[in-house]
Amino acid sequence: MSKENDGYGLSAEKSAKEIKPPKLNYLPRKPKSYNPKIGLIGTGGISDYHLKNYKAFGLKVVAISNRTPSKAAALRDKYYPDAEVYEDYKKLLEREDIEVVDITPHPMDRLPILKEALRSKKHVLSQKPFVLDLKEGEELVKLAKENNVKIAVNQNGRWAPHFSYMREAIDAGIIGRPVSVDFSLQWDQTWITGNPAFENIHHMVLFDFAIHWFDITASFMKKYTPKNVYASVVKYDEQQYSPPALASCIINYEQSQVRMAFNAHTVLGEEDVTTIVGTKGTIRSRGPGLNDQPLIELYVEGGAVKIPLEGSWFENGFKGTMGELLCAIEEDREPLNSAEDNLNSLRLCFGALESANKNKIIVPGKVNKIS
After folding, report:
1. Cystine design at 258: which of 66, 124, 178, 181 (Cβ 3.0–4.6 Å)?
2. Domain extents for the chain?
């Protein structure tokens, strides 16, 4: 081989000049003066993170409802000792002083509560996944508009520091038009073993977990229309739990592609990497887990920089979803995490589930519901 071909297939190593980090507003926002009374309906495990971060954010939760009052009382005593506890959520909705409700039960139980809250003219933050039927989601969006209130979805991943920074960088045009987005996750979810709430979800990875990544994709690619989606799942003999631990998904756009790779059974060497290559640069985040992404790597024509991030997913995320809803109410606009916008995320997710079930390419929006 001649000397000029010795490096065939290898890029020349480049040393990039360090540049100043772009100033982007990626942290959760609070309203300037609007701080309404909030009611929480449902006190499942995730509600602890809601209340912990609402308290840290200076928000006012005045009522908590659960069918088991002792569970609501325990959370009340832990975070908001002056809040009222209700066994019947309808009593909470009757309170005229409560303007915003956070509704956390599972989708089937949550649907009638969402309807009653909107008819009670309360602004609503709904737990995710928003609905299991897109038509029901569209009806809820319509109901909110008829009652002149706002409904948002607790897709808290949008305010995970790394995802929020990346979204703001895309919106600011820093890396140009996104050409490829790669999500590569290897994590240990063997803690679900023996828990029927998870073991009975066949698409535990693609649905219960990856709903965040479909939502992040919709957020990153909001200016573009997805053409089709192909997904697959694999279960292997050495798994400790029932649902397939391996999943992948490709979403094609006219001139770009989003690729997801998941291994939920990585008991050694966990890693979570997100890379976005744009027409003007590349942005990357890497860490041992979704809640530990310490910095952003940015590469553009003028140079490169590593940007330390503030906060974590389980802090910024829960502050961000409620904070954005409150800001939207104060500013009389639709929230970034509006229910109507979230339907785009569900179209991607539902299409991926159908694709994995039938081993075929699916056009997002052709599948309206899941069983």
Report:
1. 181
2. 37-157, 160-310+338-358
Q: What percent of the chain has pLDDT over 90?
A: 94
The residue with tokens 């909001």 is: 222
Residue 63 has phi, psi (to 5 degrees) of: -155, 140
pLDDT at 38 over 60: yes
In CATH terms, the fold of domain 37-157 is: Rossmann fold (3.40.50)
What is the CATH class of 160-310+338-358? alpha beta
Cis peptide preceding 129, ω within 30 of 0: yes
Asked whether residue 265 carries a pLDDT value surpassing 80, the answer given is yes
Q: Where are the alpha helices (H) located in the chain, listed in sequence order?
A: 47-56, 69-79, 89-93, 107-119, 134-146, 161-171, 196-199, 211-220, 313-331, 339-358
Which tens digit of pLDDT belongs to each residue from 124-145? 999 999 999 999 999 999 999 9
Mean pLDDT for 135-160 is: 98
Please choose, from the candidates 336, 330, 332, 335, the residue with its C-alpha nearest in 3D space to the C-alpha of residue 33.
330
Who wins on pLDDT, 371 or 45? 45
Q: Which residues contact 58 (CB under 8 A, 6 or more apart)?
A: 30, 35
Number of H helices, E strands in the chain: 10, 14
Taking the C-alpha atoms of residue 149 and residue 107, their distance in angstroms, rounded to an integer, is 21
Cα-atom radius of gyration of the chain, to the nearest Å?
Answer: 22
Indicate the Cα dihedral angle 39, 45, 51, 53, nearest 10°: -140
pTM of full prediction above 0.70: yes
Distance CA 160, CA 292 (A): 10
Residue 77's CB is within 10 A of a number of other CB atoms, namely 11
Q: Is the pLDDT of residue 11 over 70?
A: no
